[in-house]
Design brief:
Layout: E1 2-8, H1 21-30, E2 35-41, H2 55-62, H3 64-76, E3 79-88, E4 91-96, H4 100-104, H5 114-123, E5 127-131, E6 153-158, H6 165-178, E7 181-185, E8 200-202, H7 209-217, E9 222-223
Parallel strand pairs: 1-2, 2-3, 5-6, 6-7
Antiparallel strand pairs: 1-8, 3-4, 4-5, 8-9
Helix pairs in contact: 1-3
Length: 226
């Protein structure tokens, strides 16, 4: 099986990240993963990039975590793909296959409604996962707020929910209710191996992020941890 970490933060681009992209990749490989999708917090979340910069400069700096991870991944034979975590008042969504060029061309991402943003992502061939939809924290304005019409998958296992399994149980019920794809991610912010328990696995090695998405859409993925 080929294991992929699907929800991972770096210290270069996420303000809450504790290790660099390169260090995170090394930790994932030690944990037996074949690759990872870097999903740093975007500008509407806990991002490490200053908000007073021009759009192009902000995007350039945001890419540092991914670039650090990609460079190290290329060096050690580990697949690294780009994603990001889009924030909506504490509701968070992992965005796949909507890369730097598309972000640069879309500064309205910060002002458009989530529905408009989701339509644009899907129009570009992107994939949207609702991350930890039933987590309860002080920063989450409306716990349990859901958008089944805008999302493709639901994170039914999040490795950071060590002491709150009810969060994941509720997410599974939500995915079942709306027939959404079930997903898993570690949501790791450090190289601590106890948080590297999530992600998905495949019987064959995906050739690209697009290939990975297609396998997931066909439910040819195995949920790790859940």
């Amino acid at each position: 099986m080929y294991k992929y970490e699907t929800h991972l933060h770096t210290s270069e681009s996420s303000a809450c990240g504790r290790n660099t992209g390169a260090e995170m990749v090394q930790a994932c490989k030690r944990a037996g993963y074949a690759g990872a999708v870097i999903t740093d917090h975007f500008f509407n979340g806990n991002c490490a990039v200053r908000r007073d910069l021009g759009w192009k400069e902000r995007v350039r700096l945001f890419m540092r975590g991914y670039e650090s991870a990609k460079s190290e991944g290329d060096n050690i034979g580990f697949d690294v793909y780009f994603g990001f975590e889009y924030g909506l008042g504490g509701s968070d969504f992992l965005i796949y296959n909507f890369g730097e060029d598309k972000i640069l061309a879309y500064p309205e991402i910060m002002t458009d409604s989530f529905e408009t943003f989701a339509e644009r992502v899907h129009g570009a061939g992107g994939f949207i996962i609702h991350a930890h939809p039933f987590r309860r924290e002080v920063y989450i304005q409306q716990p349990g707020r859901v958008f089944p019409e805008c999302t493709d998958a639901v994170e039914i296992f999040n490795a950071s929910h060590l002491y709150h399994p009810e969060y994941d149980k509720n997410a599974r019920k939500y995915a079942d209710k709306y027939n959404l794809i079930k997903f898993s991610g570690s949501d790791t912010h450090s190289t601590d191996p106890k948080y590297l328990k999530g992600g998905v696995a495949f019987e064959r090695k995906p050739e690209s992020l697009e290939d990975m998405i297609n396998l997931i859409k066909q439910n040819k993925h195995i949920i790790l941890g859940g």
